[in-house]
Amino acid sequence: MPNSNFFSTTYAVARNAFREAVRDRVLYNLIVFVLLLTAAAIFLGELTAGQEARVVTDLGLSATLIFGVFIAIFVGVSLVWKELEKRTVYSLLSKPVSRTNFILGKYLGFCVTLLFNTLVMGVVITLALLYVGGAKYIAGVWPAIYLIFLEMTIITGVAIMFSSFSTPALSALLTFFVFVIGHFSSSLRDLAQSMGSDAALVFFNIVYYLLPNFSNFAVISNAAIGQHPPASMLGFATLYAVVYDVILLTITAVIFKRRNFK
Amino acid sequence: MKGRSLIKDVILPIAIIIAGFAVLSPLSDLVAARKPVVPESYNDTDLFVKGRELKGFVLGTESLVADWYWMRSLQYIGDKVVNSKEDLRLDDLRNLNPRLLYPLLDSATDLDPHFIAPYAYGAMVLPAIDGNQAIAIANKGIASNPNEWRLYQQLGYIYWRLKMYDEAAKVYEAGSKIPGSAAFMKLMAASMKTEGGSRSTARAIYTQMIADAEDEQTRNTAKRLLDQINSMDDVDALNNALAEYKQTSGHCVNELRELEPILLKTTLPAGRDFSVDAQGRIVDPSGAPYGLDRTACTATTPRRPQ
């Protein structure tokens, strides 16, 4: 059973990981996002035949997902790699910090960065919706923002897992593949069923059950028509993300513990 | 100590991973079951950004966005056909309510007026939805591509489908004057005036369309329509044979295959022969067996979705 020292050490690593992300200007993407949404809210009226609120919802949530995923992938893969490359991991691990502390702290610190990022984006979308008179969409936007954040925590976990044994470029590529396949996995399984090939069915079932099913977190279309998911769905989605994150961090910790830093 | 390390470093992580994956599948199903369903009408919501409004705002990628509208139009109709619960009639698709097809094709061709495939697809499908929209998209194609004789062929086809044979003849005639146009255009100009509504004209039109089509969707639709005409010829021939059999024997056949001696002497249009499946049943061009209405002593076309 982890003692209180484990938690305080993990907290210290997490706090430093958050500070590091801020120092690395990760949050500068928010400026681009604010500009994008401001421009969309002002100019879309001319282009969208009275559907500004819907387009702001679609554009805002899609941009939140895309910006977030790219940050999760590219910053996520460098979290561990940078410490190894700069050799700062040696001084860190020579202190009473275990490798599990290190991985968990880095992950949690970066998740807080992502949470802050998505919260600000959610506020910007809300303000843009108020500006274009789409207040009724706001109730659907916040659950969607929350689910996007959950998706990003899984993507960060995948990125850290790959980066614990691979190069940053390959890790980024593999994580991106997981993101794409995760959004298609249920459709691919349906396609395999309609193909009638046993081999394809087995293969896509394995893909479906092993890779994260990101379609569970995709409610942008619902938000764009003013629908919002029930609390039970949000609860189960949270549980799903937590379980998946635990699996990924366990695998990462096991690999990282066995890694030789020489 | 060693045993404790084995549990902590090997057994516990493996147990967490296995238990985690065991929980994920039912959890995923629970989330999916609670996810709100987007209403069916969502796909028919008016386009909120039309092609002409995007022109000049897409950083020179108009052609790519036109491709997107074009693919979206194919998926839109495809989804409607796949999800249709009724038997489809290719000559009247209004019950599918495909209200976005024209705006999608219009947007694709606004962004890239020289993109021929949307005009061809519109000519093939829109007459079964709204004749005026079909004429509008074909005229738009001719205005942007006056030297493309196939667009005249498509507009002629639309007029023919709408039984406007004089207009069809004029369009085929105009198209036949374009350098490089097929000889078929001149033939059509003549036959529209004399036998516009005949089945042989329809067969000629669809055969030519199958040969000329540059995209798979147009070719498949033309092939299905040609199959429909062939099927009508089959039913006519079967009914003639049934009448002949009844006249000689005084009763109707129990099965269509009993007509075989008469059918062997029958000649179908375009030199076709009857098709028979592995069970010896007479089948239509898609392989579905014809039925027999013994009360009326007539052959019936197979009922199936297209």
Major β-sheet strand ordering of chain B: 1-2
Question: How many helix segments of chain A?
Answer: 10
Full CATH superfamily name of the largest domain in chain B: Tetratricopeptide repeat domain
Task: State which percent range the strand residues of chain A make up.
Answer: under 5%
Which parts of chain B are unreliable, with pLDDT below 50 for 5 consecutive residues or more?
none
Output mean pLDDT of chain A: 86
Note the total helix count of chain B. 12
Q: Please report the total strand number of chain A as a whole number.
A: 0
Strand count of chain B: 4
Q: Main sheet of chain B, how many strands, which sense, barrel?
A: 2 strands, antiparallel
Overall structural class of chain A, as computed from helix and strand content, comes to mainly alpha
Poorly predicted runs of 5 or more residues of chain A: none
Query: At the third CATH level, what is the topology name of the largest domain in chain B?
Result: Serine Threonine Protein Phosphatase 5, Tetratricopeptide repeat
